[in-house]
Structures are given as structure tokens and as C-alpha cells.
Write a structure and sequence with these properties.
By secondary structure, this protein is α/β, with parallel strands linked by helices. It is built from 11 helices and 11 strands. It comes from Cupriavidus cauae.
Length: 339
């Protein structure tokens, strides 16, 4: 006769014998289901979050991209604007989304390489919380001056500023904005002495340069070419290593002696960390296909951007490189957000 303790042990062993294969089967079923789901990706619409409001230049790029991605992936890609906090709202939302490939974001370098350095509190880790799928485009900048400023090149500007250390000022769209960081990068490398006047946006900053209240600023080359043609500003140098087709007569900073100088804000597609490899590869391949389309590239250029397609590995490397570069610039130039 089996005693009660022995009976209990027997029942426990039987339960374990039954439960173990069941657990293995459930795990295998779950793994198989996940693999099957990844293989069939995408099976429903995809959200593309955007940190900018509707109607702007980045929004235009996002909608062009979404249209072509949707056609390539054979599922709708829906742009969802989440403006505010320097695109940190959109970045946090995608970082916290399920890692299934149905929530992506088009983020700029401000959200990924500037805010993490400038902001004291940020709800995501750029090195841990994202899957980097590919860059899309970048915005070449041009330094412009009021026509009355008696300099024609950046090296002339540098010499003039050193000879007149309290004479010059430049406007930016605000602390940490691309015009601000680009100008500080120029000052850091050249030793130029130019005072910073931060504005609440690029439009009022440019307006005061045109009016002659401020001497200099950085703007995108598309806008710069339009203003230069009408004589409202004088272009000094472009921020890329090659001359801009929109301003072919304007030299680069490198031509003026600043070796390796380049500053061109970019945008790229990210997903949450931990995307299944087949899903990440599918999205990255679709991006490369879309960004090889001549019609799309022409539309990107027409909106003031420059096509800038790189794969996931190159994008991840760019993040690490630019994050370190921005951290160094911000520390050495003592850049801090206003209270």
C-alpha cells in the first residue's frame, strides 16, 4: 500500500512528466508562431511616427517615403505626427512600442544625437532602445551674411572676426538647433569670434539677418539659393564636403581651409530595439529599394533635402560617431539649454 507522502511524490512526478512536454510544446509553438509572423511581415498597416508637425519639410519627406514604402511592402504606411519636445515625444513612443515592426519613426539627428547630450532628463537610450534601419535624407546648410558685411569667404570672415572681436553676431533657430551647432562647429575649428543670438525659430532669425540687425546665420541650401538670387543675403560657404548644385559658385568650408568640416542634419528610420532579424531586414531592404527610385530622389531634392541612403549597419555607426561629435562640441563650446 502506498503511503500518503509517496502518493504525493508520485502525483508530482506524473504532473511534471505531463507538464514538461506541454511546456516544451507551448514554447515551440510560440517560437514557431513568432517566426511565422516575422516571415509573413507585414500583415497589417504600419505606423510611421514623426516628431514634427504636419506641413513642414520633414513631414513632406515622411509622406513621400510612406507612400513608396507602402507600395513596396504591400501594406499601408501611415504617418502619425507626434510633434513637441524636439521630437523626443515621437522618439520615446517608438522606443516603447512592441518590437514587431508595426511602429517605426522618422527621426532627425536632434532627437538622436543632440537631445541625449543637452537634455538633463530623457526617457530613452539611443544606444540601447532603437533598431537603426536606414538614413533617408540630409539637409545641406549654407552660411549666409547680410550683403553689407565686407567678407566673401569663411577664411576672410575668420580673419575679420579676430581683428574685430566684438563686432559680429550670428542668429540661430535656438540653442541646440542645427544653425547653432553648425556655427559653433565652425568657430571651434577656425577660432572665429562671433556672438550667438538665439531666436525662437529659423524664420525670425533669417528675417533679422535680411534686415541687417544680425550679420550671419546658417540656412538650408534650397532657401539660401532663393535668397541669394534676390540679393537678400550673401552666401559664404556650404556645410558639406562637396559644393551644392544649388549654389555651385559657393565654396565649401574645407576649400577655405577647414579640413574635414561637414555639418548636414539628417533624418532616418528607426524601430524599437529587439526587432526580429527578418523584420528588420525586410524594412531595411524596402528602404534601399525606395531610395533608389529616381522619381522619389528628384522629389527629395525638390523639397530642399539631399538623398542620403545608408543601410542599418552604417546608420548605427553614424549614430555612435555623431553622438560623440555632438557631445564633444557641446562640452567644449559650453552649450547649455536656456532656463
Amino acid at each position: 500500500m502506498i503511503g500518503l507522502p509517496s502518493l504525493r511524490r508520485l502525483c508530482a512526478c506524473l504532473a511534471l512528466a505531463v507538464a514538461t512536454p506541454l511546456a516544451i510544446a507551448q514554447s515551440a509553438s510560440s517560437s514557431s508562431s513568432s517566426s511565422s509572423s516575422s516571415a509573413g511581415y507585414p500583415e497589417r498597416p504600419i505606423r510611421l511616427l514623426l516628431g514634427q508637425a504636419a506641413g513642414g519639410a520633414v513631414d513632406t519627406i515622411a509622406r513621400m517615403l510612406a507612400e513608396r514604402l507602402g507600395a513596396t511592402l504591400r501594406q499601408p504606411v501611415v504617418v502619425e505626427n507626434r510633434p513637441g519636445a524636439g521630437a523626443m515625444i515621437a522618439a520615446e513612443a517608438v522606443a516603447r512600442a512592441p518590437a514587431d515592426g508595426y511602429t517605426l519613426a522618422l527621426l532627425d539627428e536632434g532627437a538622436l544625437t543632440v537631445n541625449p547630450v543637452l537634455q538633463k532628463k530623457i526617457a530613452y537610450d539611443v544606444l540601447k532602445d532603437f533598431s537603426y534601419l536606414g538614413t533617408v535624407a540630409r539637409i545641406p546648410l549654407v552660411m549666409v551674411a547680410h550683403p553689407s558685411l565686407n567678407v566673401a569667404t569663411s577664411d576672410e570672415l575668420t580673419r575679420y572676426s579676430k581683428a574685430h572681436p566684438s563686432a559680429l553676431s550670428y542668429a540661430s533657430a535656438g540653442v541646440g538647433s542645427p544653425p547653432h551647432l553648425a556655427f559653433e562647429a565652425y568657430k571651434q575649428q577656425s577660432g572665429a569670434i562671433v556672438a550667438h543670438l538665439p531666436y525662437r525659430g529659423g524664420a525670425p532669425a533669417l528675417a533679422d539677418v535680411v534686415a541687417g540687425h544680425v550679420h550671419l546665420t546658417f540656412i538650408d541650401t534650397n532657401l539660401g539659393s532663393q535668397y541669394a538670387k534676390t540679393g537678400r543675403v550673401k552666401p559664404i560657404a556650404v556645410s558639406t564636403r562637396q559644393r551644392s548644385p544649388l549654389l555651385p559658385a559657393v565654396p565649401t568650408f574645407e576649400e577655405a581651409g577647414l579640413k574635414g568640416f561637414e555639418f548636414a542634419p539628417w533624418v532616418g528610420v528607426v524601430g524599437p530595439a529587439g526587432l526580429p532579424a527578418p523584420v528588420a531586414e525586410r524594412i531595411a531592404q524596402a528602404l534601399q529599394t525606395v531610395l533608389a527610385d529616381r522619381d522619389l530622389l528628384a522629389r527629395v531634392r525638390g523639397s530642399g533635402f539631399e538623398p542620403f541612403a545608408s543601410g542599418s549597419t552604417a546608420f548605427a555607426a553614424l549614430i555612435r560617431q555623431d553622438l560623440e561629435a555632438r557631445r564633444t562640441l557641446i562640452r567644449e563650446r559650453n552649450i547649455r539649454l536656456e532656463n
